[in-house]
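Predict the 3D structure for this chain.
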Amino acid sequence: MDRFLAIDAFVRVAEARSFAEAARQMRVSRSVVTARIQQLEEFVGSPLFHRNTRSVRLSELGQTFLRDCIELVGRTNEVVDQMREVTTSPVGRLRVHALPGFVLGHLARMLQEFQARYPQIVLDIVVNDAAIDPVKEGFDCALQIFPPRSEELVSRKLFPVRRVFCATPMYLRRFGVPREPRDLLKHRLGWYSGYPTRERVAFHPRNAGAAAASGAVADAPPVSLELKPTLLSNSVHLLREYAAEHAGIVCLPTLVASPAVLSGEFVLVLPKHQLTSFWLSVFYPQAARSSLKLKLFLEALVQSFAGTPPWDAALIEKGLVAEALIE
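Done. Predicted structure below.
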């Protein structure tokens, strides 16, 4: 029995809670994974999993040793990667899950520069709006706003995600310009369906973020409102196109809205009010199995996007959005 391969199989099955998913991640057959687990169980003299046709869960012994095994696998791969770094360029596949709102229009240049520097790293990037657990789904990392429910992940903030209401000048000429938050209830609204607060939103005065940062009290309290959207979508790009057709007022992250606002295609709605911001973060397993490749990828992300992102800097410079955040 190769003890390391058996322990690696144990860790992957425990994280994925599936023999089939572990086999897919390891690119071996399910029977190979089953055999490695059986060999390890015979060696320790006790079952590591309770399994039936519907579920796979750790036994008491498996729970006791999982964290130590995770650290062992992670440290072993880290050492091997460090040896490889000394002797040659990093090699292999890096699986990344990312939001389309971030990827489209912003990530390609960074990917080109990354692969020019590390040509033997194959990037496998899956793009959709789902908030996933990279451990269970077999990804090296996930770029997303809302964290998955997992204690086995490390998170690292990249940049703030500001949000604005906007519409085309033609729509506002036809249907009027909202003067206060409640006026939005009289309009057709496009809204992102994935927010944890659903359709409830708080409107803060523009000076509230700066006041909070300095410890002062804002002049006016926020206005909380339950919106009545006429279009709900998990695609911010669809919401952008909806607004571009003069169909209504939409709430968009600035990373999607900024070019249209700066060009005049869109006009900010309720610019004296500010919405709470989120953060786009990278989530990855505590014991990253592709530690060198992931480390290099994280360094490239931070170098390209940490701090105030360029799409916000242009809006802040023109006074269109507040520099201070409300979180």
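The two ends are 52 Å apart (CA to CA).
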